[in-house]
Amino acid sequence: MASISDHYAEADQAARAVDTAKDITLYGGRKAPLPLNVIIIGCGLGGLATAYALGKAGHRVRIIESAPKIGEVGAGIQVTPNLSRILIRWGLGEQLKNIAVLPEAIALRRYCTGELVGWTRWGVTMEEMYNSPYYHIHRADFHRLLLDLASTVSTLKLNSTVVKVNPSPPHPSVTLSTGEVLSADLIIGCDGVKSLVRDLVVGEPTKAVATGDAAYRAIIPTSEMMKDPALRELVESPEMTGWMGPGRHIMGYCIRAKREYNLVMAHPDDGSVESWTAEGSADKMRADFEGWEPRITKLLSMVPSTLKWKLMDRQPLTTWLHHEGRVVLLGDSCHPMLPYRAQGAAMAVEDAAVLGNLLSRLSHPAELTPLLRGYEVLRYHRTAETQKSSRLNQHIFHLPDGPAQQERDDSMRRAMETELARVSKQLHYRPWTTEEMTTALWDSVAEKQRQTSDFTGEGNSNQWADMRKNREQFGYDADLVSEKWWVENGERVCRQAVANSVSNVSARM
Ligand SMILES: Cc1cc2nc3c(=O)[nH]c(=O)nc-3n(C[C@H](O)[C@H](O)[C@H](O)COP(=O)(O)OP(=O)(O)OC[C@H]3O[C@@H](n4cnc5c(N)ncnc54)[C@H](O)[C@@H]3O)c2cc1C
Ligand SMILES: *[C@@H]1O[C@H](CO)[C@@H](O)[C@H](O)[C@H]1NC(C)=O
Ligand SMILES: *[C@@H]1O[C@H](CO)[C@@H](O)[C@H](O)[C@H]1NC(C)=O
Ligand SMILES: *[C@@H]1O[C@H](CO)[C@@H](O)[C@H](O)[C@H]1NC(C)=O
């Protein structure tokens, strides 16, 4: 059985991002006339994406990370079309093709019988409609790609834990556990779900809310699965499969060019810790899913070890920006979410893309606060909505057997029948224009879409069959919304801020 690190070496080969990244220009070649010294706390996916986006915008960026070395922790991550759109723009198109898997569909099944109740075509449909693919990828591979990108425009200081942040101008700074003090013009807290920066920004301790769920994560080599005809099809036609049961669900999909099968198993929490790296007992895991369909039993018998992860949630924060304007939050530090819409990574990278785009315009110190507020305005609502729809899936997936569950399954079946009919008639969706994906009123888009199919799936229990939600989610273009904000608001607000600061200075003189 090949170890994960064997695969890692291969993935490295397939994905040399450094060379590609050198030639990429972002923001139409625009670089900030006023470059800042930026410190990013945390070298997760969010920190790396931010380093790249701000470095490309002309800023001088340092990343500070507490881990002594870059590990390869984690399992599957979903790269949805709104995220792949950014990554392709960043020059990673070829590398993604090599290391990622394109799921052909999402299949939702009953836990005990395996009966298919929901099915939505992904693969070609995603590219057809949103002009960007949906990928499944290993977090470690993704982390490596972003590290390659970030290293072209920033520096990384490992083995350095930030213990204190001084948010006050003129010299904001961070203090490391060694006592070393590093100052910067702008400090960005990309320090994850247990963020230290968050409480400082919000001004009071923020509480994590237990969701009542925990999740096991495990990876199975697909070479093992290929030996069993019943499991073989999970690899050969790679769908994302969700098994829904009372209080529990399992999501499974292929990663690493189909060499590994990733499992996330949500179940009632019985006292785990909020951690990405805590070991769980594989035997307890099997006991948790006793009585599930034979394929699950077989899959779980192949799991030698598992990671256990307590699922915490937080209400949207009151602010992401410290009131003195020099410390801002990004990624899981400001909007952690349940993984049930698989959006943690997508949201963090989108945050980074918006922040980089806006700060590529910085030409005067007085513009910094309005630009950071613009970032917050653009991202706050969307991430709060995503937190909500992730929570909705917790409810939908975990219904106990009974009338509500039957209603859910009937709703999903209706969407599936339409979808299967469409696929068998080889009807293709009409590609949406950028305008239709991002700005046009939904009603007019839906009207045109009905030329292909009457069914738009609005409100369906299978949230991936809902074309309106899909449009909002997958059509999002981080650069486009940033440019639009600038034209509609940003330029005016920034000009005003500069004028105020100039007149205040002259008034004082
Ligand atoms: C080890 C790990 C495994 C994960 N596995 C999965 C997975 O399998 N599937 C999935 O969907 N998502 C996973 N995630 C979550 C996913 O990566 C995030 O939801 C998403 O990428 C947004 O991340 P982020 O960059 O905001 O925060 P994170 O990815 O959590 O990164 C935060 C970083 O900040 C560092 N840090 C924290 N505090 C300090 C400090 N005081 N000083 C210096 N550095 C600090 C941490 O060491 C960490 O590297 C994982 C995250 C981690 C950290
Ligand atoms: C990390 O830093 C500590 C001091 O803070 C040091 O003792 C240790 O050797 C360092 N580890 C590595 C891997 O550099
Ligand atoms: C990106 O896609 C996900 C779904 O995959 C969605 O939840 C999210 O809202 C989308 N975009 C933005 C900006 O939030
Ligand atoms: C400048 O003065 C105006 C009006 O007196 C005030 O509203 C504004 O906040 C001041 N701006 C700065 C940057 O001090």
TrEMBL record:
Gene3D superfamilies: FAD/NAD(P)-binding domain. The keyword Transmembrane applies. Keywords: FAD, Flavoprotein, Membrane, Monooxygenase, Oxidoreductase, Transmembrane, Transmembrane helix. The keyword Membrane applies. Pfam families: FAD_binding_3 (PF01494). Residues 37-362 form the FAD-binding domain. GO terms for molecular function: FAD binding; monooxygenase activity. SUPFAM superfamilies: FAD-linked reductases, C-terminal domain, FAD/NAD(P)-binding domain. The chain crosses the membrane at residues 34-54. It comes from the Eukaryota. Belongs to the paxM FAD-dependent monooxygenase family. This is FAD/NAD-binding domain-containing protein. It comes from Schizopora paradoxa.
